[in-house]
Amino acid sequence: MKFNLPDMQIINPATEEIIKDIAEDTKESVGDKFRLLKAAQAGWHSVPLQQRVQVLKNFSSLLEQHIEALASVLTSEVGKPLQQSRNEVNGARARIKWLTENAEKYLSEETMTVDKGLEEKIAYEPLGVVCNISAWNYPYLVGVNVFVPALLAGNAVMYKPSEYATLTGLEIEKLLKQAGVPRDVFHVAIGGRNTGEYLLDLPFDGYFFTGSYKTGKYIYERVAPKMVPCQCELGGKDPLYVADDVADIKSVAAATADGAFYNNGQSCCAVERIYVHEKVYDRYVDEFVKEVSTWKKGSPTEQGVYIGPLTRKDQLVVLDNQITEATQKGATVIAGGNRISGKGYYFEPTVVINANHNMSVMREESFGPVIGIMKVKDDDEAVTLMNDTDYGLTASVYSSSQDRAKNILRQVNSGTGYWNCCDRVSAAVPWSGRKHSGFGSTLSHAGLRAFTKPKAYQLRG
User: Fold this and answer.
1) How many other C-beta atoms lie within 10 A of the C-beta of residue 124?
2) Can you tell me the distance from the alpha carbon of 25 to that of 107, in angstroms, rounded to the nearest whole number?
3) What pLDDT, in 10s, does the model give residues 136-189?
4) Is 17 known to be catalytic?
5) N or C: which end of the chain has fewer CB within 10 A?
6) Spatial distance between the Cα atoms of 265 and 366, rounded to a whole number of angstroms
7) Cα(136)–Cα(167) distance, rounded to whole angstroms?
């Protein structure tokens, strides 16, 4: 394919230097890639499932083999510290392991009834050619959630990485094809919003998006007339409650601070607001700030750095506005609160107390290193506040009692509940949101079958 394509600049968020100018897809080039995928999909589906599983295992091995180079590329374009980039690649490999080890169990035909000459079976057929519009904050993890089960199920995939993670998307494509995915079974669409619009115009057999509520709602409305599957993994304003019976305040403060600020808080399941029982509030806040003060800030390529730059420059304004509004309404900033001067999109890890739900810092996504903390009098008040949100991705409770935590979590309308942990994803259980956090499931058996359409067979003879 030869196209006259415009250039898109890839910028290093730590230095603001241009890493590379890269060709951006046009409507014509995206259409040609789609037609190649359409022609190749049936051949990929005809490959035995065991062989498709082995190809994705090969991909995981290549991720391990090239982890240092992949981490370097990822850090250069999204700004996360190198060790966090390595962790992401390893996390993707852990998910691939579960998905490949369980693919045959959940994608093979199932016999449901054998009785007096009648056999009833379910076959799980691929959707066809699916579109994966992915995110920049964890391109390996959120990508693997979609394109790995899609390929295992026999689909062809058009993968659009975020324009902020373009180079990583191209690395993914290269290694998938080295692993044995046929050339025209996986293609990458390069570009920003315009490229996304081109994809929405094409007759894909399913759409899978990870990103903001605003964009997800737009995509859902755009593709609804096609009457094909559409799943949206969207944002969160994930609450965490620290009960008064926690055994070790210092350890809980350290763990929850990490849950709020890992990857600069740029995670849909990062802790975004914290409620603390009044009996332990002062001790918890003190230990929380002590933990935050120990973190090293600086270049993401420097050993030991925990806080690097934000990926997107625009988010600096969002954080500034949230903090300004909170302080004007009576909140107190007890750590951070400012941009870090110099080159790069750096912002201090910020702790806001005396916050309340009249402030955007407790209501709207921060997606950055800012956390609001509120004092509550009991579990009932905590539940009310945890549910006072348009989002419903995850919720966390720290308590010495599992029964107490589960009772609270049962009352919170979220797709995932955590007891004595937070900000984690496991391939064994479904990843799904409620309300503005989206719909549909990736991961687990539900996520494997999300890329299939069941066919019932009723066979008499």
Assistant:
1) 19
2) 34
3) 999 999 999 999 999 999 999 999 999 999 999 999 999 999 999 999 999 999
4) no
5) C
6) 8
7) 11
7 confidence band (pLDDT: 50, 70, 90): confident
Residue type, 232: C
pLDDT tens-place string over residues 300-351: 999 999 999 999 999 999 999 999 999 999 999 999 999 999 999 999 999 9
The residue type found at 426 is S
In a 13 Å sphere around the CA of 221, the CA atoms on its Cβ side amount to 6
The span from the CA of 342 to the CA of 345, in Å, is: 9
Q: What is the Cβ-side half-sphere exposure of residue 274, based on CA atoms within 13 angstroms?
A: 31
Spatial contact of 432 and 136, defined as CB atoms under 8 Å apart: no
**Rounded mean pLDDT, 271-294:** 98
Start-to-end CA span in the chain (Å): 51
Q: Of these residues, 24, 77, 163, 233, which one is catalytic?
A: 233
Q: Do the beta carbons of residue 129 and residue 41 sit within 8 Å?
A: yes
What is the identity of the amino acid at 14?
Answer: A
Of 289, 259, 290, 253, residue with least CA distance to 272: 259
Closest CA to 14 of 366, 310, 316: 310
Provide the residue type at 369 as one letter. Answer: P
SS3 sequence, 55-89?
HHHHHHHHHHHCHHHHHHHHHHHHCCCHHHHHHHH
Q: What is the mean pLDDT of the chain?
A: 97
Q: How many CB atoms lie within 10 A of CB 95?
A: 24
- The yes-or-no answer on residue 268 being catalytic is yes
Which strand (E) or helix (H) includes residue 21? strand 18-23
Active-site annotation holder among 268, 291, 348, 365: 268
Specify whether the CB–CB gap between 186 and 173 falls below 8 A.
yes
Residue 431 pLDDT > 80: yes
The one-letter amino acid code at 208 reads F
* Per-residue pLDDT reduced to its tens digit, 98-122: 999 999 999 999 999 999 999 999 9
Phi/psi of residue 282, each to 5°? -60, -45
